[in-house]
Structures are given as C-alpha cells and as structure tokens.
Amino acid sequence: MTSISKSKNFYEQSYCDKGITAQRKYPNEELCRFIGRRFGDLSHLQKQELKAVEMGCGSGANLWMLAHEGFDTYGVDFSGEALSLCKKTLESYGVGAKLFRTDMKQTSFDHNYFSICVDVFSSNCLDTNQGEQFISEVYRILKRGGTFFSYFPSKCSDAFQEHLPSKLIDQNTLNGIYRKSSPFYCQPYSFRFLYPEEYISLLEKSGFNVTYSELISRTYRSREETFSWCVIECQKK
Ligand SMILES: C[S@@+](CC[C@H](N)C(=O)[O-])C[C@H]1O[C@@H](n2cnc3c(N)ncnc32)[C@H](O)[C@@H]1O
Predict the structure, then answer these.
(1) Which residue from 45, 49, 119, 186 lies 20 to 30 Å from 195 (Cα-Cα)?
(2) Among 125, 129, 136, 187, which residue has the most ligand 1 atoms within 8 Å of its CB, making it the best to mutate?
(3) Of 116-120, 187-191, 199-203, which range is least confident?
(4) Gap between the Cα atoms of 205 and 21, Å rounded
C-alpha cells in the first residue's frame, strides 16, 4: 500500500467511526491570528473578491470561519467522508464553500487562481518528496502576491526528538507515531516534521518570500510532552 493510500484509509475510517468528533470543531488559533493580522481591515465585500482554499480541510473547522469571514472559500480533502461532514458543518453555520475531493499535491485548479492558500496540520501527512510536490502545487495555484499560511509540526517536538519505536522513512518523516506517551500516538501514516529553517529554505527554493515565521509550543499530558509548530506565512513572488 502506498503512503498516500495508507493515510487516506486512516482518515476515511476515522471520519466514519468518530464523525464530527474526529477533528477539532473550532478554527485553529494561529489561523485566526493570520486572518486578523492580514485581512482584518477588509470589508466583507472586499473579502468576497479573494479566493481562499484550505488544503486538507477535514470536517470544516477552519473552513466555516473562512466562509463566515466572507472569503470566496474552497476546501480540498481526499476523504469523501470528511467532505460530507464538512458540508454539514458549513450548513450548520449558514455558510457555503466549494468542496473538492482530491489529493492536495495534485489539484485541477487553474494556475494563479487563489489569493490565499491554507494548510493547517495537513501536509505533514506527506513524505519529503510529496511535500515538495505539494509546495510546487501551492505555488502553481496561487496568484502572484498570493499568500500561503501553514501550521506544521516542528522537529523541536519531543514526538520527533524521541520518536522510537517509530522509524524514519526519510530525513524528515516518521512512519507514524508509535511511542505510546507521544501526542498523536496511533497515527499510522507518514508524519513529517521540519525545523523552521528547513521549512523556510524549502519555500524560498520554491519561489516564495517568507514574511512571517514563528515557533509555537504547547505541552501535553500534564506538561510531560512538548509539541512545537512552525507557523509560516509566505508570498508568491
Ligand atoms: C489532521 S486533519 C486536519 C483537518 C483540518 N485542516 C483541521 O485543522 O481541522 C488532516 C486532513 O488532511 C487530509 N489529507 C491528508 N493528506 C491529504 C492529501 N494528500 N490530500 C488531501 N487531503 C489530505 C485528511 O483527510 C484530513 O482531513
């Protein structure tokens, strides 16, 4: 089984078993900060002119907020079950978005189509080669000056530093999270981490100008485990 079909099967099953509780219900805080920071001054009408896509939108916890803010909103996920849940989430908030069932590293959107592309804890399911393809795809579908926001696992996390019995399948990617005390234990698919400097270098090599880069850390299991996230914002040159 390929690594993509492994993660696809995992997510499909997880959404079937747990329904809306499989993922978060409310939007990611760093995404909210990004929207406030960059688009907070725009009117609803001005935001309607901006096409925004979330890659790996899952059950719509971020997407409903983007649609509610007024963006012309699109969601991509390879799980049909996720998109059914996402449709219900959007309906429950009285908003709409265009949903596409496809692999995030190879979409059928036109070149230069979006003003905003968002990745919240999704492209980490791709290994290093696939991750590079994904960044090229994001570059392709963004307009010049368009912004990519990403919330991505950092290698500073204990989950990466002390990953055994998980194994590295390339320099950045574990074959899953198999240490029982780790956050996200039991995720049996490719799970990629990057240091912020590595992520910045990948983005710059792909033609982006990185305009914001922070490291967010939080503890899990009553402060026993620290998990860190790269929060990155960049623009297509
Ligand atoms: C951890 S969930 C995050 C969902 C959402 N971004 C959120 O913050 O609530 C990761 C999502 O990415 C999707 N996903 C993973 N790999 C994908 C791929 N190659 N193409 C499309 N969707 C993918 C999964 O189906 C899942 O819904």
Answers:
(1) 186
(2) 125
(3) 187-191
(4) 38
Please report whether residue 40 resides in a domain.
no
Q: What is the pLDDT of residues 58-105, one digit of tens each?
A: 999 999 999 999 999 999 999 999 999 999 999 999 999 999 999 999
Number of domains making up the chain: 1
Q: How big, in percent rounded to 5, are the helix, strand and coil portions of the chain?
A: 35, 30, 35
Element (H or E) spanning 179, and its range?
A: none
Probe target for ligand 1 pocket from 77, 119, 122, with the most ligand atoms within 8 Å of CB:
122
* CATH for 201: 3.40.50.150
Instruction: Give pLDDT tens digits for 197-232.
Output: 999 999 999 999 999 999 999 999 999 999 999 999
Structure token digits, residue 213: 């880069």
24 lines ligand 1 (CB under 6 A): yes
Question: Is 7 touching ligand 1 by the criterion CB < 6 Å?
Answer: yes
- Nearest-atom number in ligand 1 for the CA of 103 is 20
Query: For 109, which DSSP code?
Result: P
Does 55 map to a domain? yes
Please indicate, yes or no, if residue 189 is contained in any of the structural domains.
Answer: yes
Q: Tell whether 25 is covered by a domain.
A: no
Task: Determine if ligand 1 sits within 6 Å of the CB of residue 61.
Answer: yes
Domain coverage including residue 232: 3-19+45-236
Phi, psi (degrees; rounded to nearest 5) at 164:
-60, 145
Enter the tokens of residue 42. Answer: 């725009």
